[in-house]
Amino acid sequence: MASEKTHVRTTLNGEATEYLCETNQSLLEVLRDVLLLTGTKEGCNDGNCGACTVNMDGRIVDSCLVLGVEAEGAEILTIEGVATPEGLHPIQQAFLENAALQCGICTPGFIIASKALLEKEPNPSEARIRHWLAGNLCRCTGYDKIVKAVVAAANTIGGKK
Amino acid sequence: MATVWIPTPYRDLVGGAETVTVAGSTVRQITRNLDTVYPGFWERLVDDETDRIRAGVSVIINGVVVGTALHEPVGENDEVHYLPAIAGGHP
Amino acid sequence: MTTSDKKKYKVIGTTPIRHDGADKVTGRAVYGIDFHTTGMLWGKILRSPHAHAKIKSIDATKALALPGVHAVVTGKDMAVARDIEVEAGETSLNYMHLSDNVMARDKALYKGHAVAAVAADTQHIAEEALGLIEVDYEVLTPVLNGREGMKSDAPLIHPDQTTKIMAFRFDPGTDSGEKSNIAGKSQLKLGDIDAGFKEADFIVEREYTTSWVHQGYIEAQNATAHWNNDDNITVWNSSQGTFNQRQLMAEILKHPVSQIKMVPMEIGGGFGGKIPVYLEIPAAMLSKKTGHPVKMTMTRTEVFEGTGPASAAQMKAKVGATKDGRITAAYAELVFEAGAFPGSAVGAGAQGMFTTYNIENVLIDGYDVVVNKPKSAAYRSPGTPQACFPAEAVIDELAELVGMDPLDFRMKNAAKEGDRRADGVQHPEMGNLECMEALKASDHYKSDLGGPNRGRGVASGYWGNAGMPASCSIAINADGTVSLAEGSPDIGGSRTSIAMMCAEAFGIAAEDVHPSIKDTDSIGYQGLTAGSSTTLRNGWAVFEVTNQAIELIKARAARLWETEPENVDFADGVFFSKAEKELKLTFKEMTGKLMETGGPISVAASVAPRGAGPSFTTHMVDVEVDPETGKVEILRYTAAQDVGTMIHPDYVEGQVQGGAVQGIGWALNEEYFFSDKGAMLNASYLDYRVPTMLDLPMIDTILVEHANPDHPFGVRGVAEISVVPPLGALANAIYAAVGVRMRDLPMAPHKIVKALQEKNGKTK
Question: What is the ipTM of this complex?
Fold first, then answer.
């Protein structure tokens, strides 16, 4: 049943991107099912797990709670836009070096959320990290190594700057 | 003779004994001989259709889980257990 | 703690970056839920709104008339599966029950039970179509509690079911003959508990309950199936065992195993919950009907309501000890709610319950009771967290009565090699006491609690671990690298551990081995990614293929050096001539000479290892309880576990930490709330409340490396056991903090406040 679709223009991972979407499709659905960018994961589709976290105009949002049509004119960063041809982002590298993932399904959301934190606050305390990332669920690691990875990434980024 | 540990609900078949000694050099022989002296064991433990120990039962010899094959060798002084296959929570 | 074994190895015990790491941190890894293929339709399941209801009729006419809808299937479209018990991986199951759980036929047995499935152009159309399928139900009275369900006047969920008095779930030998919701009664008995309790100076007897909890994997169940025109079926999904699921699919669809290919996509968590099949069957049926590949995914609510959580349990425990602290007898009664079909993990719970202790007289009665709730599935050390909770709580009370430190009391009674478990089996070599000793020597144990309303608790745990078959193949590349194929879905980094053992054997770097996980047409049989067995059994497979390859390469070196193969040896990554010392080539150098000495080399092997090596652990936790709100804050947590030889220590530690946190959730927050009609009222992550990062401190570990003597690399399963002790440890810590014994999980704030009010009311 073809309903009328809306033409949406965004900047996605730094590149001008256009798509057609139905009004009832979430940004998460658009990313995954229309643009086939499946790095943004679906965990609950009701805003409780953070697996679908993307950065939208400088704020982290659960993309399952944003409609595709709301992204008109927005700048969106997904996990696919974090690494560069030069290599992994220090947060990605820190997640690997600290074994901060097991199954890895929550990892893209954690990386997007951690990146926003470190851009805002380059040296967060453990308590601050735990507070900032409390909306991202991980069922494998017990979070210990994720906290350590974010601290390690902050140190790397700080040392470079 | 191997020492066979009798599963608790079957101990009525052997007058309440925890263990009995049984002759035999394979699981098949042990189970047959057990059944000869204490009838009922073979039917409870063996699936004749597949000629194997029943699904859900695990044979343990000297503490090592050996599975459900009747031809599994049993040594002279071995200790044989028939236990529920661990896991649980099946589909 | 480390052992001298470490020196033996160059790769084992190091922490290389995982081989799938870059894919997983960049979003490129393709999970089951990410799979897309050309011409794909979307499927959705219609689920019963009632916990117990007769399905009188299903009318899909209106749904089928909706534009974009391609097909609808119901339970009536399925062949009747065989009513027999079979081996399936590490467990056994009844095909008819499994089939009826996948799709209800005559009766819906829990809220969320699948009754129909629809395939449509989009997810949204499929969802809309569900609302147009008309089902006429006759609502029946549900059974919602194990003890209630055991009563003779309870409504019968399966009218023909009688109680099997069983050592084994499916023993046909003894049947009560009485119709009952009690599917099975089992018993473990060692020694004489009456005599044991007579010897005791102190006896504690208590009752405990736990709630239904879910594994909570972040990736929901999903499956994409294509039933091709040549009758070959391909399924892309995330599962904990492709070969097991292939067998289940073949049986339920009555289709040859050889015509089903299961493709393991990356898996976003499982913890036991992704062993069964659910969506795979309706997806395949819809694909057959439509000619298109059909993708199905569950919503989070469907995951809670329609998959296999861990059983709630109602339990009694009674333990006796002498004045000098020797446990003389233990008794337990375990009632496990199996869910809609028989087969809870009560047997495994009984086998794990008092197993960390050497007790000469033990009796454990177990009841497997069907209730109108989702069919339980495996969850990390199935059955054992529930059963060890009462054991550890009663033992804590006994330690207090005897006047001993709870850790000392456990050490005094700790099971050692040669002691007998309740089922009579003797313990093999293991590190139970070492874990307790390590904890006693820790800074944590020696530290002060440093404030009021704070307390420390300890608890121990056991899990037997499993063996299961494995297969792998290697191809030696001319540049000194190795392509390693295996078939076990990698749920937490196992492909890297397996590659590391391969690298160790050849004397090359972990990065020089390239592991991949193959579909069921491309690799030999594998057991489940379950039972903490993946690294253990694939380590055996790797040991086989690398040994075979080394022998083949030796022959090539002999050819090169114009001598006999027996004159060539291999050590520390170097092939050398025994006679002429200057003749030596590294593994890498040799691989460059394979083409000129007879061509490429590849080796495949299958193994069925035994001697899994059991796991033992003891945890210690400090808490602060807010007496006003009942909130429990975890101040410090240490888990000591016998982990055998660690292949990748970071991922071993991660398993210990992750399991401990799942146990913390089980203890403090997580539960299914059911309405009086059997509807789950909190079927979302927010309301179900798994632990967040903010709820926890760092999880410290003490990893005791007691190598498994029955494994070529000393591997012992590590993944499951850490979920076991937190339940008891937290209950004991809360008592130490504020003096109330919590016996009903989860130990939610309102329950603690109520317990404190009752306690203060009594003492005032």
Answer: 0.97
